[in-house]
Amino acid sequence: METKTVTLTIDGVQVTVPSHYTILDAAREAGINIPTLCYLKDVNAIGSCRLCLVEIQGARGLQAACVSPVAEGQVVKTNTERIRKYRKTNLELILSNHNRECTSCVRSGNCELQALCNEYGVDQYRFDGKLSSNRYDDVSPSIVRDNSKCINCRRCVATCNKIQGIGAIGVSGRGFRSEIGSIYKMSLANSPCIYCGQCILACPVGALKEKDSIQKVYEAFAQGKYVVVQPAPAVRATIGEEFGYPVGTSVTGKLATALRRLGFAKVFDTDFAADLTIMEEGTELLGRIKNGGVLPMITSCSPGWINYCEKFYPEFLPNLSTCKSPHEMGGAMIKTYFAEKEGIDPKNIFVVSVMPCTAKKFEAQRDELGHDGLQDVDAVLTVREAAKMIKSAGIDFCRLPDSDFDSMLGESTGAAVIFGATGGVMEAALRTVYEVYTGKELKDVNFTAVRGTAGVKEAEIDLNGTKIMVAVANGTKNASEVLEAVKRGEKNYTFIEVMGCPGGCVCGGGTPIVPAKDKAYMDLKAERAKALYNEDAGKAIRKSHENSEIKQIYKDFLGEPNSHKAHELLHTHYAAQPKYKFEKK
Q1: Which residues are paired to 17 by β-bridges?
Q2: Per-position b or e across 4-17, b if 16+ CB within 10 A of its CB
Q3: Burial classification of residue 255, based on how many CB atoms lie within 10 Å of its CB (0-12 exposed, 13-18 middle, 19 or more buried)
Q4: How far, in Å, CA of 267 to CA of 259, rounded?
Q5: What single-letter DSSP state applies at residue 546?
Q6: Nearest residue to 356 via CA among 197, 220, 160
Q7: Cβ atoms within 10 Å, residue 343
Q8: How many angstroms separate the CA atoms of 143 and 130, rounded?
Q9: What is the C-alpha separation between 104 and 15, in angstroms, rounded?
Q10: Parallel, antiparallel, or unpaired: how do β-strands 208-210 and 495-499 relate?
Q11: Dihedrals φ, ψ of 336, to 5°?
Q12: Whole-Å CA distances, 72 to 34, 102, 529
């Protein structure tokens, strides 16, 4: 069906666009940047910040470009003296309710409000507003909310509700008294929040941020602990952005060098643990298929998804794989296998995980994820926090030589690196499950049917005559659609991969924050995932069961996948959790 188009003129530039476009969309097509704060492509378009005001010939007053549809013959102006004056005044009004301590703000230098104020010459505060009474919430183990910096753009609300389907935050009050927060002004820790951190990525200012763990790591160094670090697969495809590299640049070798220069005793790779996860998870899946276990089996790598399942779909808890997530498995192996080999007291080992995920901070504290009175992982740094440590140490990341991860727990395959992209865990598992189940070698290890950034993907996989249906969902709202279809009996899957964040770990809540105006011009999910798939394609070994260090750890320590020892160290269980936790009076 042919798309209907219209032709309009914006700032003297004639542009032809689809008829469903807004003026903001059309302006961007013409290379004209109209400022926005509340607008977030495909998420939030409500015209509330009033920064995208434009003049439309024949229209009464100024109109918000983000919600104004295009029309044939329209004549639009975006940069008149009148418009600039209104935008500057609106920025001053927004600032009147915004905490102005910018130098100490985590978003200073990457704040959309700050950038617009610089652009429009707003360097004075003409208006005095009222800061939110519901100011600071740092009870959550993962996310800090500072409402004194909130500008009421509602991007976080739209993301939490429309994209993730959680509803942990909303708007209370009306007009000048409206505030963003959780029901009854409760902490995020007591709300349905799953700690995915997508609200942080949506926020244009510093009203939402991850709970800082940097000082905890510094203290471990100061105490003389044996401090070990392990970065997740997605980190190598995202941390380069913090140092000026284009989106989608893989910086694996420089990452290993930078972490080593920070003083970590060992720099291991969570990719190794991802291969270990496939051995355990793949064996578990085959066992369920052959022995009539609970199906569909659902992956358990994403802590945001686990939190969501516990709160919203506890009836599917028996379907969850019992495997711990890769970095938790890595921590368990560091404090047992590695400690035993090196003769180090596990109590003196401090494991730091560098993750693209804010929910990992909560996960690391869970009672279910430890052994012999020790947590598997002691601290979790987001990609942003790791970059901050590297910068503050004076390390010139871009000039670093490449180096490898440390051996014993550092070797990995192509299957492991794609864990960071939606569909990656599924594909990695299928590479191993196919060969173990059929006894035949895969000629083509690329299961392209489960790749891509669509919210839900499904495929039929032929295991040499045995056909199974699999599904991949990224983002919890999409996961809900899959689970509801299973509940209604409409789908009969054998295996389901769920990632809590849209796009998977490469767009996790702890990854570099891309301003909304830049994000509108790129497919962030696809570009970052491409870096991982390219690294996978360049690996000599691309199947987890062929990793020599994995073979060694089973030979020397674990015995075989799903053994009693493996279950003791690498598997866990989860239980239903209430959506709300009300404090007792």
Answers
A1: 6
A2: eebebbbeeeebeb
A3: buried
A4: 7
A5: G
A6: 197
A7: 6
A8: 24
A9: 43
A10: unpaired
A11: -125, -75
A12: 20, 44, 39
CB-based contacts of 283: which residues, under 8 Å, 6+ apart? 436, 561, 562
Strand ranges (E), 518-574: none
Half-sphere exposure of 569 (CA within 13 A, CB side): 25
Distance CA 208, CA 203 (A): 7
37 Cβ neighbours under 8 A, 6+ residues apart: 49, 51, 94, 112, 113, 116, 151, 153, 204
Q: Is 482 exposed, middle or buried (0-12, 13-18, 19+ CB in 10 A)?
A: buried
Strand partners, 16: 7
User: What is the rounded average pLDDT for all residues in the chain?
Assistant: 95
* Active-site annotation, residues: 281, 284, 301, 321, 360, 363, 368, 505
Q: What is the pLDDT of residues 225-274, one digit of tens each?
A: 999 999 999 999 999 999 999 999 999 999 999 999 999 999 999 999 99
CA nearest neighbour of 529 among 329, 237, 289: 237
Per-residue tokens: 386: 């790791």
pTM, two decimal places: 0.95
In whole angstroms, what is the distance from residue 209 CA to residue 201 CA? 9
Torsion over CA: 502, 507, 513, 515 (sign): negative
Give per-residue burial for 200-216: e unless 16+ CB within 10 Å, then b: bbbbbbbbbbbbebeee
pLDDT for 215-227, tens place per residue?
999 999 999 999 9
pLDDT digit string (tens) for 137-153?
999 999 999 999 999 99
Cα angle 400, 405, 408 (rounded to 5 degrees) comes to: 165
CA dist 472 and 72 (Å) reads: 41
Using DSSP, state whether 373 is helix, strand or coil: coil
The list of the chain residues with pLDDT below 50 reads 585
DSSP string over 289-325 = HHHT--SSEE----HHHHHHHHHH-GGGGGGB--BPP
Enumerate domains of the chain plus CATH numbers.
5-94 (3.10.20.740), 104-210 (3.30.70.20), 215-570 (3.40.50.1780)
Burial of 380 (0-12, 13-18, 19+ CB in 10 A): buried
Rounded to the nearest 10°, the torsion over CA 8, 12, 13, 17 is -10
Q: For the chain, what percent of residues have pLDDT higher than 90?
A: 92
Identify the CA nearest to 506 among candidates 540, 533, 479: 533
